[in-house]
Amino acid sequence: MRLYSLSVLYKGDPKVHLLKAAYDVSTFNFFQRSSVQEFMTFTSQLIAERSALGSRASVKEQEYLCHVYVRNDGLAGVVIADNEYPQRVCFTLLDKVLDEFARQVSKMDWPSGSPATISYSALDGYLSKYQVQTPR
Predict the structure, then answer these.
(1) Are 23 and 125 in contact (CB under 8 A)?
(2) N-terminal to C-terminal alpha carbon distance within the chain
(3) For residues 83, 50, 15 and 23, what is the CA-based torsion angle, rounded to 10 degrees?
(4) What is the pTM of this model?
(5) Domains of the chain, first to last
(6) Can you tell me the mean pLDDT for 18-40?
(7) CA 132, CA 85: separation in Å to the nearest integer?
């Protein structure tokens, strides 16, 4: 069971843009990592774009399950995990991250924000904390 990506996005008019993201691509070949990360960013934006405000969904994309939660205020979160990762845990994580993000980052910054301008550093910590360590 593995988490690969955790993203916070803003669903505004006319499109969705990434505010902050964390990735764990350590299980991929070194030469594949940047394209895998790009795929995850693109997929997160696409899924958030196609989801209605106030909705939650789980979408299968290749060998991944993408869990999306779009709040009524336009703030969205996407977790990309493998098929075995528990869906309930993903949505609990999204709830927690989006609530904390909304408290720490001003709503005025969401429409114009980008990963370079938004200061919210908790995503990497959540990604590693919620990673399920499998015994070797």
Answers:
(1) no
(2) 13
(3) 0
(4) 0.93
(5) 3-122 (3.30.450.50)
(6) 95
(7) 8
Over residues 54-80, the mean pLDDT reads 95
57 alpha carbon, distance to own chain's centre? 13
How many CA atoms within 13 Å lie on the side-chain side of 119? 0
Q: Which residues contact 101 (CB under 8 A, 6 or more apart)?
A: 8, 19, 20, 75, 120
Q: How confident is the model at residue 134, as a pLDDT?
A: 52
Residues belonging to the chain: 136
User: What proportions of the chain, in percent to the nearest 5, are helix, strand and coil?
Assistant: 35, 30, 40
What six digits make up the tokens of 115? 């990963």
CA 42-44-74 angle, to 5 degrees, is: 125
Provide long-range contacts, Cβ within 8 A and 24+ apart, for 19-25.
19/101, 19/105, 19/110, 19/113, 19/114, 19/115, 19/118, 19/120, 20/101, 20/115, 20/118, 20/120, 20/123, 21/115, 21/123, 22/123, 22/124, 22/126, 22/127, 23/127, 24/127, 24/128, 24/131
Query: Are 69 and 90 a contacting pair, CB within 8 Å?
Result: no
Q: Is the confidence at residue 135, as pLDDT, over 70?
A: no
